[in-house]
Amino acid sequence: MDTVESDQPGEFIISSMELYFMINLLGEKGLPDQDTEAFVLQCCASDSAEQIWYEGRELLKRKGYFIPGTDGELRISAQLLIMLGHIYLAKKAYLLQYILDDREYEEFLYIHEDKIIRIECLKKDEGQYRLTYLNIDNNELVHSFGCTEQKLQNPGELPALMLSRSQFDEILSEATQLDVEELIEQLSNTTDEQEAMIALARCIKSNTSKGSLRFYLWNNNVWEVQYVQFMSNHHINWLIRSSAKHDEDWMIATPTSMENIQEMIKDWLAEPIS
């Protein structure tokens, strides 16, 4: 695939079908399969992957990002190639998804040295994404993670809770149908730490924001994944760690401050890649 010069800006607005086609060009350096489906194909569930790939390619051709040559090969605009190049060379990435006051936000960042490619979901219902090329430091990366304000001043007052991930996920799936007392009863079967468990139950029922972070590290030609969730109400923040492996069922819920969560992200970004 060759490149062609383009007057297109360094910021691209594309559809989920176009993004799916581009990620597939990267092979294993794209998103892991289940995360591709969750982040990119959420608006295309009724179509086959092959049809989405084909329609994405045709849309990119019509916009001039990909131009068919006389030899049948596709030629790619230079600025878009730069973005795809940094994605391909990335050794770290993270997927941030959260809901704040009923507003959903999602973004995926590929990190190649001090170059960042941000893929931000603009209109989930319409499957619209913005690709942006950034050249920023690690401190600035966490600015988009300002979805909740710091609430818990002394997180050491409550202990962390060790729970079963499968049991907790089942309880969360039923939380909207349960009142606080019923939720406390459900959680009481998973831990003996009553005060912390009651605080977690109340946060589940009265949360003002919640979300998740997936941290990716490229190692031995695969993406290694770490997974954390977070949840806040007007009194407390919870950081919920669990294994991304299907055969591991542990989960740890820790009361913390938003500042500590942001520091965790900075530490992970600054950690050298072996």
Overall radius of gyration: 21 Å
Largest sheet geometry: 10 strands, antiparallel
Number of domains: 2
The count of DSSP E runs of length 2 or more, i.e. the number of strands, is: 13
Content of β-strand: 25-35%
* Series of H and E elements: EEHHHEEHEEEEHEHHHEEEEH
Helix proportion of residues, in percent? 25-40%
Helices, by number, come to 9
- Average pLDDT figure: 80
Q: Whole-Å distance between the termini? A: 31 Å
Low-confidence stretches: 1-9, 146-155
Strand order of the largest sheet: 2-8-7-6-5-10-11-12-13-9
Overall body shape = elongated
Global structural class:
alpha+beta
Oligomer: single chain
Could you explain how this protein is built, in words?
This protein has helices spanning 16-25, 33-39, 49-63, 78-89, 138-141, 165-174, 180-188, 194-206, 258-270; strands spanning 2-4, 11-15, 66-68, 74-77, 92-100, 103-112, 115-123, 128-134, 161-164, 209-219, 222-232, 237-242, 250-256. The protein is an alpha+beta fold. Strand 3 and strand 4 form a beta hairpin. The radius of gyration is 21 Å and the shape is elongated. The chain starts with a strand and ends with a helix. Residues 1-9 and 146-155 have low confidence and may be disordered.
Short description:
The protein is of the alpha+beta class. 34% of the residues lie in helices and 32% in strands. The two termini are 31 Å apart.
Keywords:
single chain, 274 residues, alpha+beta, 2 domains, 10-stranded antiparallel β-sheet, 3-stranded mixed β-sheet, 9 helices, 13 strands, 32% strand
Write the layout of secondary structure elements.
Layout: E1 2-4, E2 11-15, H1 16-25, H2 33-39, H3 49-63, E3 66-68, E4 74-77, H4 78-89, E5 92-100, E6 103-112, E7 115-123, E8 128-134, H5 138-141, E9 161-164, H6 165-174, H7 180-188, H8 194-206, E10 209-219, E11 222-232, E12 237-242, E13 250-256, H9 258-270
Parallel strand pairs: 1-4
Antiparallel strand pairs: 2-8, 3-4, 5-6, 5-10, 6-7, 7-8, 9-13, 10-11, 11-12, 12-13
